Amino acid sequence: MTNRKTILPIINTMFQFQRSFYFLFITFICFQAGTVAYAIDQPEADRPNILWISTEDHNPAIGAYGDDYAHTPNIDRLAEEGILYRNAFVSSPICSPARSAIITGMHATSLGTQNLRSEIDIPDFIKTLPEVLMEHGYYTTNNVKTDYNFDPTSRWHESSDTAHWRNRPSAGQPFFSVFNIMTPHEMPANVYDDHYFERLEERRNPDEAVLPPFFPDTPEMRNIWARYYDLISATDLEMQDILDQLDEDGLADDTIVFFWSDHGFGLPRYKRWLYTTGLEAALIIRIPPKYRHLAGLPPGSESEELITFIDLAPTVLSLAGIETPGYMEGQPFLGPYKAKPRTHFAAHRDRADDVYDMARAVRTHRYMYIRNYMPHLPYIQDALIFGEHKRSSVELDRARAEGLLPIHGEAMYRPREPEELYDVKADPFELNNLAGHPEYSFVLEEMRSLLNNWILETRDTGFLQEGEMMLRAEGSTPYEMVNDPKQYDLPRIQAAAELVGDRSVPVSTLAGMLDDEDSGVRYWALEALLARVNDDSWKAVNRIREAMQDESPSVQIKAAETLCMLGWCGEALEVLSSWLEDERGWLALQAAISVRQLGKRAEPMLDQIHLVRQENSGNIGAQYAGNTGYGGYRDSFYSMFIGFAMDQVILLFDEGPGP
């Protein structure tokens, strides 16, 4: 009989050999496929540094994307050394909700961070990308913009205008560093200040500009378009400055570089607009040779894969050898945890500045579907953000007054259809709405289904009015609140929202919904009645008046706005006046926006409007302020937008500072 002590070492040796051979075989196969397994516990020296260079407010107006008007030699070279993504999109066409999604890997609508410049609590267990990387030994720096709609405190090792990978305590520690280039923001694009161009050897010729079909072909609009391209040329130089520092430190071979923009141009029908023009972004990723096995594509490649920027955080984690946390909604498109390519993605538009809206979209490679839940509201409203401080808005208004605005430009000033469907291959500017075409009914149903599934799966917080969401989430967070079916009956509230703009629904049905037990349903019933103030909602005037006594502040405010729009302003203005003084900024803002929407109907409140504007005055955002003599605002959150609304009403009466 063979001795057990003799045979065990032999078996163990054979097992170890087989396991080693198996591992080597699998590694070889994976290497051939470009997807080598990457262990989480890799030594620091083997883990890539990650550098993000993010830029503000521009589409892929870059030479490498085939734009002959652009002059971007440094970005073009980065594309030659990396991978250029032709189908990269943000999830929201404005800064803070887009950046909230990017840094968390989650839709802003899941967290409640979808409204511009809000202050939202998120659950402690939801960690941002830098926090996850910190837990895995990375040094994290952000220079300097956050704009997440939630508190950024303690989420980075450094977040300031001096934050830099050079400040890490050990030269061998891997880093995740972000540099935000502000140059192409909408404000520099819409003023006459030329100091941004001091380093440029040449400027774009406005006569050679090719304008989109919704802009008037005027000298001023050509100048604005050329100026935007010059800002991107200046950005090109700033990007190279950062890459030069990487080279100076001998880190280029150890660092994966992401270059991306946060949404479309800061111009009408781009930023704030839920079209491809607002969502399309630049994305170029350079991966050095030692990590190229994580890419699957050689340098100079172009990818047609559909990317949404909630995928950026999971992708960085994958490149660092870290699995995507379960709460993240994005998926990696590079690295060992690369997911199956997307077939579609979802996007959203909510409050931007002091302009309410609520729209959702689904985009595939071929089609864009948009569902407007407030179709009675045009994109361009009588609001400060479309005012005289913005050259592009002034020029659109002038061209419109002179009859020079193209028909698709005129559409920006008009109510929208509840549904929009575009074939983006045949119609890249999304001008021809196919939603009413019978031959596209199957596509329409399919896109509706994709959107509805996404809304329900992600528990979209946006179907609650902003103030209502905040009230229901008190003591918790919007994310946790909406994931409790007892607190948020999403299917019923969504069904109510879909009645807005549907003229086949009897007014009596909407009036009856004002007795519903759910304030979310009652709110949307009022929004539907407001959409019909020029038609037949007067039939429900008594029920609307009663709704001003509703237990929900958001319902009260919406009822008061609707009643005044119908001509009964006395008691309605009293309700708005009381909420305008509320200490909770998100409720006062709803009242302020309703007052702005009323325009000259709000004249009896003018003294209070001046006082509220004065109370919200400060040193923030003076460049955005209306010419009312009050200067800037107290903060860049609710106070600023309350001030925006008050400024607009004051300007309507051509008044300077009041009492």
Largest sheet: 8 strands, mixed
Overall, the morphology is globular
Structural class, by secondary structure, is: alpha/beta
The amount of beta strand, in percent, is 5-15%
Distance between the termini: 107 Å
As residue ranges, the low-confidence spans are 1-41
CATH architecture of the domain at 44-339: 3-Layer(aba) Sandwich
- The CATH superfamily label of the domain at 44-339 reads Alkaline Phosphatase, subunit A
Mean pLDDT: 93
Brief descriptors of the model:
alpha/beta; eight-stranded mixed β-sheet; 23 helices; Alkaline Phosphatase, subunit A; 659 residues; four-stranded antiparallel β-sheet
Describe this entry's structure for a reader.
- With 659 residues, this protein is an alpha/beta fold.
- The N terminus is likely disordered.
- It has an 8-stranded mixed sheet, sandwiched between helices.
- Helix 18 packs antiparallel against helix 19.
- The protein is globular and about 70 Å long.
- Among the domains are: 296 residues, Alkaline Phosphatase, subunit A (3-Layer(aba) Sandwich); 91 residues, no CATH class.
